[in-house]
Amino acid sequence: MIDLTTASAQWRVATVAAIRNETATVKTITFDVPGWPGHLGGQHVDLRLTAEDGYVAQRSYSIASGAGSGPLVELTVDAVPDGEVSGFLHEELRVGDQIEIRGPIGGYFAWSAAHDYGLLLIAGGSGIVPLMSMLRSRDAAGATQPARLLYSSRSIDQIIYRSELDRLAEQTAQFTLTHTLTRNAPSGWTGERGRIDRVMLTRWQFTPAGDPDVYVCGPTAFVETIAEHLVGMGHRASNVRTERFGPTGAIRT
Amino acid sequence: MLVTRGFKGKRRGGDADRLRLPPGQFLTPEFPVLTAGPTQHTKLNNWSLVLQHGGSILGKWSWEQFEALPQTEITSDIHCVTKWSKFDTRWRGVTIDDLLRAAGLDAAPTDFLLAHCDGGYTTNLLVADLIEARAMIATHFDDLPLLPSHGGPARLLVPHLYFCKSAKWVRRLAFRDADSPGFWESQGYHLRGDPWREQRYEGDQ
Q1: Which of A144, A212, A234, B43 is at a distance of 20 to 30 A from B127, taking alpha carbons?
Q2: CATH code, domain with A198
Q3: What is residue A202's three-state secondary structure?
Q4: Which of B4, B81, B122 to mutate to test the interface with A (most CBs of A within 10 A)?
């Protein structure tokens, strides 16, 4: 178990080890963080950026990489229009650059192999990031309980981690993947279309049977709506863990 | 200080705005919603607020009784531990001072308190952070009843601490003989949470 007491408060200097494009507006940045204490799937970090005149900006980002104790930490960052920090991370940051980081932060919206219960994951847009961290952690830990992911994207080219999710779903009998596209679906699309509603949740067995752990992450209105559906379907509110980010990305600018 | 190569920053707002922002915060005109679980919907006829010390109930108010207590308005900046700040938010409700008076108390019985909320959320507070008009049980935001997603019908408002201390859907204030961590404080967040000292996480001074 990670000792948050000593680990999370300390600022560390991370070096950018790799940057890759996930979609046209989403990048994954790999940081080498000497002394990184490890993390659980779903936790986040704080970044601190300092300009030459001492001006400082801080933001929180979800960790994308799976649980582990190595020094590499991956963050997947959505480019928010006019975003002060996400804009910098997308346009300026280069491999070899250094940046201050601290964490891991947050132990509630997190998956631990010690609690391998049935898992229901519901993502909207870049809300997939902490859930992907959980799925990677689960895969690495050889989790045995079933997991389901229902992932809502606007269009097929905006799906983050698409090939890796497909691979996980093919390799792991216990993992069921469902995509829904809310704007455009290409011809031959076999996934769901439209916004997630109670009918769709029921069709993909996002039901309270077996008392599963439920994690919902996405824009505020998305999370609000789905959390209400889940409680209405009989999920215990205490089993439904949520992370919301603002309609215009106020939390992750 | 490690300068981040190529980072200039957007520096929104004027110098006056920036002086009002505690370290590491950024200004937003929005009112983001952050909650660890589903929004709670408590019907007013089932609502009550309880003031408690150990096994004794020091005061209990139904919604109707609570609404009849003296009303106070507070306008304040608020600061979320996740780094957004919002200026000049306008609230109405009942100060903790008035609540203590309504319970017939000259002073709080202890120095510590744990706030309990619908949905199981808790947060710990020093009584010193709640009295002398520093905090209230807020029922209105911008003259309108507080929306459930923002903690309605009633939330704690402790604007000089990180906003996770301003617990949504508050129902019970339990005085305690010692400080003990609430929900986020058990997950590595700071016990007191003063934004001007940037007390975000356990271990921050």
Answers
A1: B43
A2: 3.40.50.80
A3: helix
A4: B4
